[in-house]
Fold this sequence. Notes:
The chain has helices at about 80-85, 140-160; strands at about 1-5, 10-15, 20, 35-40, 50, 60-65, 75, 90-100, 110, 115-120, 125, 140, 170, 180-185. The chain has one domain (about 1-180): BH3618-like (Roll). The longest helix is centred in the last third of the chain and has 22 residues, at about 140-160. It is α+β, with helices and mostly antiparallel strands and about 190 residues long. The strands form 3 sheets. Strands 3, 4, 5, 6, 8, 9, 10, 11, 12 and 13 form a 10-stranded antiparallel sheet that branches. Strands 1-2 form a two-stranded antiparallel ribbon. Strands 7-14 form a two-stranded parallel ribbon.
Amino acid sequence: xxxxxxxxxxxxxxxxxxxxxxxxxxxxxxxxxxxxxxxxxxxxxxxxxxxxxxxxxxxxxxxxxxxxxxxxxxxxxxxxxxxxxxxxxxxxxxxxxxxxxxxxxxxxxxxxxxxxxxxxxxxxxxxxxxxxxxxxxxxxxxxxxxxxxxxxxxxxxxxxxxxxxxxxxxxxxxxxxxxxxxxxxx
Length: 186
């Protein structure tokens, strides 16, 4: 079964059941928007978009922190692990919501409140980390640009070989676990 939505950013999307992510508490500031999908815009930025299925005008740019901060770790409490139904941290992916101003060199990532996705259960939660080491406005442009330069030629060759269409929802089964989720449990 699939859902067809008309989005403000990506036009019409055909979203399959295995691409829908439930965020029961919503994203901070959007508590009533609970159904989302990840959209790959088909460009070379590595940025995925968390597209609301409840409001087609809402989409959050997101990036896996390992791309720009390899030592990043999201430490979840036992209650958060239960809410996400995470039996194993190996079935999760972590994303940081980005702020992309007109001057993209000022792009930031919110490291303090990542979105943790249980890939198996298609369930997610925006978690506010207790560590004071993480900022809500972490500058990422330099690191992202360096990473993109490194992989740019590989992605071009892959896109030409696969003929992947732009702006497609991402199946959660295609996302490898990020291994950046750490439990507070000993």
